[in-house]
Amino acid sequence: MRPEILFPLFTETSRLQGVGPRLSKLLETVAGPHIVDLLWLLPSGVIDRRFSPQIADAPHGVVCTITVNVVEHRAPPNRRRPYVVLCSDESGMLELIFFNAKGDYLMQLLPLGTTRVVSGKVEHYNNSYQMPHPDHMITPDQVEGIQALEPIYPLTQGLLPKILRRTIDGAIARLPMMPEWSDTALLAREGWPPWNESLRVAHAPATHEALSLLAPTRRRLAYDELLANQLALAMVRQHQKRRKGRSIECDGALFERAEKALPYQLTGAQRMALAEISADMAESARMLRLLQGDVGSGKTIVAFLAMLGAIEAGYQTALMAPTEILARQHFQTISPLAEALGLRIAVLTGRDKGRAREALLADLAAGEIHVLVGTHALFQQDVNFHDLAFAVVDEQHRFGVHQRVAFSDKGAGIDMLVMTATPIPRTLAMTAYGDLDVSRLTEKPPGRQPITTRAIPASRLDEVVAAVGRSVENGARAYWVCPLVEESELIDAAAAEERHHHLATIFGPRVGLVHGRMKPTEKDAVMEAFKSGEIDILVATTVIEVGVDVPEATIMVIEHAERFGLAQLHQLRGRVGRGVSASSCLLLYHTPLGETARARLKVLRETEDGFRIAEEDLRLRGSGEVLGTRQSGLPSFRVADLTVHGDLLEIARDDARLILNRDPDLVSERGQALRVLLYLFERDAAVQFLKSG
User: Cα-flanking dihedrals φ and ψ of residue 79, to 5°?
Assistant: First the structure.
């Protein structure tokens, strides 16, 4: 249950005075449906109204607050001309300009012969001083009501700054006095004010410095959000660790046979990861480990070799992937080795139906299947293992923490290995995977060739098409990725179809097409044709971003490369360079290039190190955009910015661990305050893991 103290904040914005259905819709667009959402809508800048020159000294394009006398009203002859109110002071004349104005209203607001204080941006036009649509027009005795530094908020069409400001003031007025959940020694050391005061100051900065993300008030608010995140993850971890695991140890005979059957040597990083996994499996506590490996670093084989320990001890194992293509590809990668060891491996996806599915599930329940590979279908209710002890989740950022927990319920004390081919910056990894131990694969398997990366303007498209044609004639295979357009699958597909048609007129039927709107069976058939060499050029949207493995493909063309994030470009590039032949990646961009896009392409040309690329991506785009948090299950923050507040994340993680060591069920006075914090930042799902209350 949400604590009663938060009830006033988690009601609809329509409860605020002056907020009707139309305004509440606009507020939901810009902030969210609840009053608490308005609290997190912090100003992005300030308008400084302290500058009060005489008219003749008012510079062009600067916000000025000027005391004037109202001299004349000039009504326009037609609606296309503005209404002008002429004002003066001893230095000169100022024209107040109004389009589509009501003369009666302006006459009331600015009566002839009166003194008024007007505030707005001054413009010099045709040797006259003008102030179009002043922000404030008040009597001298109302000047105190003008904020010297007025916050600027993000807006949406139809929402006026004054109305948003008034509504946010109404939300702040409903703030209950929060209990103190942060460590008093930390507050003293950092010089942070109480939470309520921090929020009020953040919404009404008295200086430009107060607006900075490094200001004490902003750091205080960011820390509280990061503490809620780290505490929630630590509680999930504590809950998982409390559930008894099982110690799995074996003599490693299966592993030795598998290693001898491999056509290549394991890298040092692979051996290190396997040693860490084996040590975890031998413990009586459950394993919760993240295996982070760059594109092509050999994660799948590490996962399979790790499974062998559990299989040798008499248990079953499972591997879950986010898409059918990826699940079937893992199955194909592992099958030859599994069969050579005499193990039974099966694949289960949403596409499997009828008697074949029933037979597979019966064999699974009887313990006759050693390795089950599949999609979300693996944690459906009717899927029952005989004795599942080791589970692997691939591309974890496509799943949430709770799906991971649901999967782990398929057996008793399951050891869980989570894999991602998306190198994640350390700070992001801590916020998304703070409940996991981490192993990193930082080397590529031996024999892999470096990828030559070039950025080419789109005006040279014909040259690129010709070059791809020459390579294909010499036996190469190429991916041609079409741009992402406003996250719209429909427009993405149209762009891909258009390029496919263009290339097919040049190269004929040896050009294939795959996009997100195709049926899984159609996609699989095209991918199979590309793998087997029936198709030489595969035109695709970003559906081929993750996991597709065609070692013969050596060319990657990415159109509109400037529209992609760095991590995604790196993922796409990783589809080539998987065999022994030299590969190239051509980034087609449209000019003019923005500064960030230029920096992105430069980094990509300079390095293939996914971990360095991930850190650069975070620096260039900010934490909210990396991996596209909405789609990826990564947490998005309302106040904290990991590019600025990374140091606070470390403190929050240590604090969360200390809190749960001292007060695992949050029953102390501070523990109760921390429960309020978890609900305030909507991390309340973690509270269900507490033993009491």
Answer: -65, -20
